Amino acid sequence: MADDTRRKMEEKTTNSSTAKNEQLDQHSENGEGQYLTTSTGVRINHTNDSLKAGSRGPTIMEDFHFREKMTHFDHERIPERVVHARGSAAHGYFQSYGPIPELTKAKLFNDPEKKTPVFVRISTVVGFRGSADTVRDVRGFATKFYTEEGNWDLVGNNMPVFFIQDGIKFPDLVHAIKPEPHNEMPQASAAHDNFWDFVSLMPESMHTIMWVMSDRAFPRSYAMMEGFGVHTFRFVNAEGKSKFVKFHWKPVAGIHSLVWDEAQKIAGKDPDFNRRDLWEAIEMGNYPEFELGVQVVDPEDEFAFDFDLLDPTKIIPEEVVPIKMIGKMTLNRNPDNFFAETEQVAFHPGHVVPGIDFTNDPLLQGRLFSYVDTQLIRLGGPNFNEIPINRPVVEVHNNQRDGFMRQTINKGKTNYFPNSRGGGCPMMAPETAGGYLHHMEKVEGHKIRERSDSFKDYFGQAKLFYNSQTEIEKKHIMEAFHFELGKVKDKEIRQRMVYMIANVDKDLAVKVANGIGINPPTDEAKIKEVAQDHIPREKVKSSVDTSPAVSMENRNNKKGSIKGRKVAIMIDEGFDYETVMQVKKKLMDGNATAEIVSKFHGMITASNGETLETDKNHITTASVLYDAIFIPGGAKSVARMKNHGDVIQFINEAYKHCKPLAFSGEAVELLENTALWNLVKEPQNGVNVSKGVVMASNNDNMGDFSERFMECIAQHRFWEREDMDHDSIPA
Q1: Catalytic residue status for 84
Q2: What is the pTM (predicted TM-score) of this model?
Q3: Is 591 part of the annotated catalytic residue set?
Q4: Catalytic site residue from 84, 91, 231, 256
Q5: Where is there biased composition of kind Basic and acidic residues (predicted)?
């Protein structure tokens, strides 16, 4: 009898539990009846802003929701980084241009004779470690300075703004842009429903979206890529006076990018393209160089702009606050071991030295917690700073002991402070002895989850960026939206994004709509609805409507330099040896690289009996891996290449991608076998240049020929070709 009773009770419990689980499963499937909760089941009424002391104040440590959300996110990958997993790195040094004690007391900026060692890691954000280099993505640009006052980490990106305004939204952003959780696709790409669903509901992201849709999303080389600190930091001088500061890295080689079609093809031909380029440049002595510049704002001008200095989705236009160059970084040594250095390096925005301090930027405040928390699981515990690549060059003295992977063997009887048994050591350092002193700032306000209204102009700078682009750059942004949103299956998300884009530029929104099968944005109420609580800022004296500095084409790209460019010299048996050597020397003099490409590997004999060894054969390379192509004369060589489909493919594809091409002597005849013949001017006597195609039908003017070719390489692209009908040009 007791057994029957127990059995009936168990069945009742099981049925009740099953019904409850079915109900929960049903809610999970349709998304109804769910409230956001903590992991302990506490319902959350606001998850878009961290808990602050006032709407513009610092994040408060008691924000259990933020800490739980960020801690869980930081520990989601073992051992690969959750973001920035795909990275490349190099050693080098930084040297100040001169003392700036009026701005900062940081010693690395005030001794122009000193070379401060650095380690730089550049990475994509979204892809896993095995993903390709050339995907459309933001690039991380993190620099560890091993200074005499301790390590300083400048942890930024190659774009000056970020998608979100508050660190509490970072897990949501990354979850949305990573491969979709049900099928782990797509890899290293934002072109899927989850990401654009998130963006279409987060208008604050639109400024960064415009940058990501531009060609800056796939740099030609890490040496040709800008870097930014993103946040507003502080400089503090010896008198304790503070100024707001934005950090900028400016590449000496200029700013250049790939085009989208070649970026996709390179991902298949050489997924290590940027990593290989950085490694080989350093090995050959073509050291990448970056100038460090700062934009400085006086405290009394904190509210003098039509945006909030603490908003990480905004820039300070260079036309409003010019950049002051304060030093140069040179990368001159490759890592000895990828894992020990590139993988184990641990960056943290909170690693600062005296003279550098923080602001209440809510994204920066979140990063100050998140980065250390991430290293605890990724690198095995609290002793990650003892890994050789992370160790400072100065001695470390503290009372921290034990823990996973402890390297230091501490001596002595005391591990606490204050103490008398150890002579009071290690003792606290006064400011006069280099002790770090936080800038004193008055902070007050209600404890509240709220965003300052000064952060709510979501589209002003997105418009500024778009209006500052040249027509060809605007065309590329439109095409990027066609690709990205064209991959989105949910028509409602595509429609919502078109209305979101209309808040930036209606003409662009119409063009995007036409390319993705969506109705143009005609409903003004809907345009305002997707903008949510957008508050346009009033124009002030320092406002600008355009900023040429954000356009790569408008900037001074140092067109006189060909440093770091790679040129394919295509030859076959019987080539013109003298012309090849002349052009190759000219390239080497400009610190560019020339590779000999032929149908097969081996030694190739020239028309004069000299030989050259090939660097690549047709099957192991492609035009997308080079910045320019040169084909010399030589009747036998050209006759053989006329029958090589790969050669014709090289020429047509390079032309389509607007790259410089050069043909000398009999090689001009090759154009007759390509779709280019009717698109370029037929060469006359001497040297002819048409749309970046350099031709010389004889060898009488080879000096001029080489010079004109170098000028075309320095220009990088000839965008006027994109205005032509390329349907007849095979790719």
Answers
A1: yes
A2: 0.90
A3: no
A4: 84
A5: 1-13
